[in-house]
Amino acid sequence: MMKKLGIFVLLAALVLCQGVSAHMPGAAAPAPEVDLGPIVVSDNGVPVEISIDDVGKYHGMLEGKSPDVCVCCACTYRAILSGINEVWGDEIPERSDIGLKCGLISNGSVHAAWYVTGTDMDPNNQGKLELILPDGSVLTNQSPSAIKKASKARTPESYWFEVSRLSTGDSVKLTVSDDVFPEGFAEMRKKVKFDKTASKDEIRQFISDYTSVRDGMLQKADYELFNEIEEPDESPDILGGGIFLTLLCGLCIGLVVMRRK
């Protein structure tokens, strides 16, 4: 009896393992360690630092699995971080003053947005999240089943975000560069995750592409990731350098003259 029970447990464990490995993000390589800097918000006057790891843990908890920084978590986090920097500058936004319109509809994206804006936490101090469908309408049902259904139509054009300051109406819209995605990424995602018609080789290639996209979301500079962010000007300050050199030469000449006297 015990032997049969042991065999049953072993078979059950094998089935569970196969189910886990069949889940595409779980088969991807672990996300790289990055230091993106935290998103800092004020929660009823108390500064709160939110890291990409915090978002990954929250997403994993809601999914009933280990912490997971997926493509959509990473992208949404980066968009909110960059958007807050653009709109608020050096100010710390009140959580309830953050508005986000998002064309990227997925559990990972929604969970990241919920965590930052507090729209699934404190009803007394929460921002505003709107999920925008391809036809421009708002997805009011944010249940997992409704989000999964809407996510099937995702394309690279879905990766856009509008971060706004609700109290003033100031906002910035960010769209992800097409260069981030391998050719045919959206079509292969649909084939692997929804149609279930991909071959083993196609699944392996998609996992590789998925990992590359996710790592790019985490590691690329803002200007490489978002079309609207300009590359910082790192050219040398010739004018400032010339003025400094002139002053330095003047100081040296003055010291020489003083010594001769």
What do these coordinates show?
Mean pLDDT is 83; it is low at 1-26 and 238-249. This protein has 261 residues and is an alpha+beta fold. The chain has 10 helices and 6 strands; from the N terminus they run H-H-E-E-H-H-E-H-E-H-E-E-H-H-H-H. Helix 4 (71-88) packs parallel to helix 5 (107-117) and helix 7 (185-195) packs across helix 8 (200-219). The radius of gyration is 25 Å and the shape is globular. A hairpin with a 5-residue loop joins strand 5 (160-165) and strand 6.
SSE blueprint and pairings:
Layout: H1 2-22, H2 24-27, E1 39-43, E2 46-50, H3 52-63, H4 71-88, E3 98-102, H5 107-117, E4 128-131, H6 144-151, E5 160-165, E6 171-175, H7 185-195, H8 200-219, H9 222-225, H10 238-260
Parallel strand pairs: 3-4
Antiparallel strand pairs: 1-2, 3-5, 5-6
Helix pairs in contact: 3-5, 4-5, 4-8, 7-8
Short recap of the structure:
The protein is of the alpha+beta class and 261 residues long. It is built from 10 helices and 6 strands, in the order ααββααβαβαββαααα.
Mean pLDDT score: 83
- What topology, given as strand order, has the largest sheet? 4-3-5-6
DSSP strand count: 6
Name the structural class. Answer: alpha+beta
Name the descriptors.
10 helices; alpha+beta; 6 strands; two-stranded antiparallel sheet; 261 residues; globular; four-stranded mixed β-sheet
